[in-house]
Amino acid sequence: MAMSGVSVEVLRATFARAERVRLMKHHEEKCAARRSPIDPIALARVRKNLFAEDQFVFSSTNSLFVEQELRRIENVEKARWNFDFANEKPVDDKKGTYKWELYNKPQMKHLVAPKPRRIGQAKVTDYMPKRKGLKRASDGKPALSQEQEVQAESVQIMQVD
Fold this sequence. Notes:
Layout: E1 2-3, E2 6-7, H1 8-34, H2 40-50, H3 59-81, E3 83-84, E4 89-90, H4 146-160
Antiparallel strand pairs: 1-2, 3-4
């Protein structure tokens, strides 16, 4: 079947090729947007050295830095709150922002509810009434103990034989 001199198969192939080209361009644009502006070789070097084995060579320098930072933070907070957090005592400093005082909690026993005599449920019967006998759901007869059920089954088996 020809349509103004061009077959349907040729048209389909042309459109399929155009669609593939469009998808390839779209994929290239997405990949280009995801690419980092950093040089990939430099990035690989950084990745290699990030968890290098000789990072522990400078561990004394790192621990010294951490200790200095902790002391600096402690001094800043001590000056800010006028409280020695290491010894858990207020600082007697006249130029501090806060003055710490001991607070005694007032005694208000009459406002506090008495403690309950017992906490929790001691027995099932505390919340549920006692029943004389449990009944089986299947036939309405009283429930049997496990031993009684075994005996009843053996009697039924003997009767069948």
